[in-house]
Structure formats: structure tokens, C-alpha cells
Automatic annotation (TrEMBL):
Matching InterPro entries: Ostalpha/TMEM184C (IPR005178)
Origin superkingdom: Eukaryota
Subcellular location: Membrane
Transmembrane helix in keyword set: yes
Record PANTHER family: ORGANIC SOLUTE TRANSPORTER-RELATED
UniProt keywords, alphabetically: Membrane, Transmembrane, Transmembrane helix
Record-level GO cellular component terms: membrane
UniProt source species: Stentor coeruleus
Full protein name: Uncharacterized protein
Length: 313
């Protein structure tokens, strides 16, 4: 562990800044290529938020490293951004479902989207906590999409509400220590509400991704791989600090007589987070290729029936 008095000047701060700079350049180039191609911008525009994940999440962690403390405004902003990424992914998949060609132009159609969801089968919930009816008509498809939107957007609403209330508490009183996780702390209950809301949003979005991925002409777009990127960003920021905190309590990271458990967790998790962002930026390039937008609905039908055609793309 780097000495606290010299933390801002330590080599680890400089190295992570270089790593984040490279990750940021990669992500910004991906956004540039998206605007340059504009092959199906109706769907591509929703990827901008996802492509910004390595930049915003990474630099937020780096600032906390630099300041050696959790920053409430950064934390709430980061949570809002993550919920925006979930909503953006949902809207992106909707646009892919409604993709059709009109006079050689890639356009979006609500009717095509709902028709694409009609399979006569019922979406399956992994935890069996929500039962869905078979989607046999476009009306059934609309009801299913409303359920997906409700569960994803509820997270956005809850995070906005908790963020506003949290900032009011911080600005008006010093009674509650931000980040305190004791049972009598208001932040503990905030985190519990956020965690439950996040789990429901992720489960429904995973269900939606699995259902879409199983559609006859959607397999080549690797929808589940794309969902994994979103989930990876959440795992890095939500569950990684919990795991590190548990390890830190055992004294495996550093002697906890010199530093508090919160300090060890903050430093270690943010150091890892900054390093992981370059991995995420490379994965974004691999999983969201521009070639996806050359796979028009007609081409995807050919791919589905002829695997050799897919390998040649």
C-alpha cells in the first residue's frame, strides 16, 4: 500500500492515468467510427452511452484515488450513468428488432419490431420469479416490451430519487457519514434499495437479451455478448468493492493496523477498476463491430440458413 501522504504523487496514480488515457482514446475512436459510418444510426446512437463507459467509470475511480475518499457527487453520477447504459442497451436492441430496409436505406419500424417478437413461445425468467405468457400476437409483444421497459426504467427513476435525496442530506447535515455501511446508516438502506432495483433490471434485461438472441435471424449479432459488456461494467463497480472489502478484512492485502478497511477497499478497488477499463475498451471494439450494420435483415436470414455465408462476412 502506498503511503497516504504521497498517494497523489505515487507511480500507481500515474500508471493508471496512462492506462485510462489509452482506454479513452480507444473508446473515443470507436465513437468517431460510429458517426463516420452511420450505417444504421437509429440504433448506433444508443451505443454512444455504452462506449463512454470506460471513460466515465474509469476516470471517476481515478479521481477517488487521487482524493483518497469516496466522492458523493461522483458516486451518484456514476450510478445514473450505469442506469442510462442499461436503458440505452434496451433501446438499441429494440432498434435492431425493428430494422428494415426501405429503398436501400436502413430504417426503424415499430410494426416490424413487434412482429419480430412473435414466436408463440414464452420468454423464460432464469430465477422463475416472473412468469411470461407466450408471445403469439403483436399485442402480446407490446405487453412484453412494456414489462421490460418498466423494470429497466424503474432503476433509472430510483437512482435519480436516491441521488437527489442523498445530495440534499449531504448538503444540509453532517450527521450521516457518506459511504458508512453500518446497519443504522441511511447509506446502507440506500445501497440495499439500489441493489434490489439493479438485480431486477439486470434479470429482465438478460431475459430480453436471451429471448431476442434466440430469434431465428438474431444469432449472428451476438446480443448476449453485448449484454455481457454492460453487466461487466456493473460487476466491476458494484460487486468488486464488496469482494475486496471481504478480503481486506482478513489482512491479505495489507496490514489493517495502518489503514482502515474502507481505505484499503477504496484504494484497491479503484486501482483495479482503472486498469480494467482498458480491457473493457478492447472488448467493446470486438463485440460491437461496424460489420454488424452490414448484416441487414435479409443478410441475417441467409446467415441463419447458411453458416458458411456467416464465416465469409
Amino acid at each position: 500500500m502506498v503511503d497516504r501522504n504521497n498517494l497523489a504523487e505515487s507511480s500507481s496514480i500515474g500508471v493508471t492515468a496512462v492506462i485510462l488515457s489509452v482506454a479513452s482514446i480507444i473508446s473515443l475512436y470507436k465513437i468517431y467510427s460510429l458517426f463516420k459510418s452511420r450505417l444504421y444510426f437509429e440504433a448506433q446512437k444508443y451505443l454512444i452511452c455504452i462506449f463512454l463507459m470506460p471513460i466515465l467509470i474509469g476516470w471517476a475511480g481515478w479521481i477517488e484515488l487521487l482524493e483518497e475518499k469516496k466522492t458523493p457527487t461522483l458516486g451518484f453520477t456514476q450510478n445514473l450513468f450505469k442506469s442510462a447504459c442499461l436503458a440505452s442497451f434496451m433501446l438499441y436492441v429494440e432498434r435492431i428488432l425493428g430494422w428494415e430496409q426501405d429503398n436501400g436505406q436502413n430504417v426503424y419500424s415499430e410494426e416490424i419490431k413487434f412482429r419480430s417478437l412473435v414466436t408463440g413461445k414464452a420468454p423464460r425468467c432464469l430465477c422463475r420469479c416472473i412468469k411470461f405468457k407466450p408471445i403469439e400476437t403483436t399485442e402480446d409483444a407490446k405487453k412484453y416490451m412494456n414489462i421490460v421497459r418498466f423494470y429497466v426504467l424503474q432503476l433509472c427513476v430510483i437512482l435519480v430519487f436516491l441521488g437527489i435525496i442523498g445530495l440534499i442530506i449531504i448538503l444540509t447535515t453532517d450527521k450521516f457519514k457518506f459511504g458508512e455501511q453500518s446497519l443504522d446508516s441511511i447509506w446502507f438502506y440506500f445501497n440495499m434499495i439500489q441493489a434490489i432495483s439493479s438485480v431486477f433490471a439486470l434479470l429482465i434485461l438478460l431475459n430480453f437479451g436471451m429471448y431476442v438472441n434466440a430469434l431465428p435471424d438474431m444469432g449472428s449479432l451476438q446480443i448476449l455478448h453485448k449484454f455481457a459488456i454492460i453487466k461487466l461494467g456493473l460487476l466491476f463497480t458494484e460487486f468488486q468493492p464488496i469482494i475486496i472489502s471481504g478480503i481486506a478484512r482478513t489482512g491479505a492485502i495489507v496490514d489493517d493496523s495502518d489503514y482502515s478497511n474502507d481505505e484499503i477497499t477504496l484504494y484497491t478497488s479503484n486501482l483495479l477498476l482503472c486498469s480494467e477499463m482498458i480491457i473493457m475498451s478492447f472488448l467493446i471494439i470486438l463485440i460491437f463491430p461496424d460489420s454488424d450494420y452490414l448484416k441487414t435483415p435479409d443478410v441475417r436470414k441467409i446467415i441463419e440458413h447458411n453458416e458458411d455465408s456467416y464465416l465469409k462476412l
